[in-house]
Amino acid sequence: MPAHAITSLDDLAALYPNPIAPASVAKEIDHVDANYAALIAASPFFVLATNGPEGLDCSPRGDLPGFVTVRDAKTLLIPDRRGNNRLDSLKNILFDPRIGMLFMIPGYGETLRVNGVATLSDDPELCGRFEMAGKLPACVIVVAVESAYFQCSRAVVRAELWNPDKHVARGSVPSAGQILRDITVKNDAIETFDGEAYDKALPERVKATLY
User: Which residues constitute the domain of residue 175?
Assistant: First the structure.
């Protein structure tokens, strides 16, 4: 082990000697109350964490605010919108139904964390509740809520996440096409990818395949 590795709870406690703030405990409940339901209704984006036989995974999920439905205080409904068909999250849920979610609201500092147990449903009536642009989700993720609590705004404030002056210029970071091109260049078994053509077609392709 490295010389300064933290390997025990005692080591950790020595680094963080201050007691946990009472509010940090009080904010966690085992259901979605009216306040937390309002945050979910306002959120157009969350990150879904799952665990599977090949390890952990985090997947972005987004749609119009309110796309995640609070069916009742212990149940969330999430339409599985069109994606890349890797199905990492869905396969993981079949292996281990425990999930974690981090909801974010543009312009709002606090985030919302929800943990629970998920099942997948292709019930036609349930999927029909989430029709968009004439398209139905292939399935709905049904979440039995086990805990819900807001996260303070420090991380968002430090990151200046919602500050438009901090938005990066599109060309200042590698594009999707560039990433794919560079990966295939290094793999002689795959034909080199046309990254420029991919980037050029991507915006319209995304718009045409949202649902």
Answer: 168-208
142 in the same domain as 81: yes
Digit-coded pLDDT (tens) for 145-160:
999 999 999 999 999 9
* CATH number, position 148: 2.30.110.10
d(CA 198, CA 27): 46
For the chain, what is the domain count?
A: 2
Give residue-wise pLDDT tens across range 103-139: 999 999 999 999 999 999 999 999 999 999 999 999 9
Count of C-beta atoms within a 10 Å radius of residue 67: 21
Question: Where on the phi/psi map is residue 53: left (φ > 0), alpha (ψ -120 to 50), or beta?
Answer: alpha
- Burial of 112-149, coded b for 16+ CB within 10 Å and e otherwise, reads bbbbbebeeeeeeebbeebeeeeebbbbbbbbebeebe
Q: Is residue 10 part of a domain?
A: no
101, 197: one domain: no
What DSSP string describes 85-117? Answer: S--HHHHHHHH--EEEEEEE-TT-S-EEEEEEE
Instruction: Taking residues 4-18, report their average pLDDT.
Output: 94
* Whether 41 and 92 share a structural domain: yes
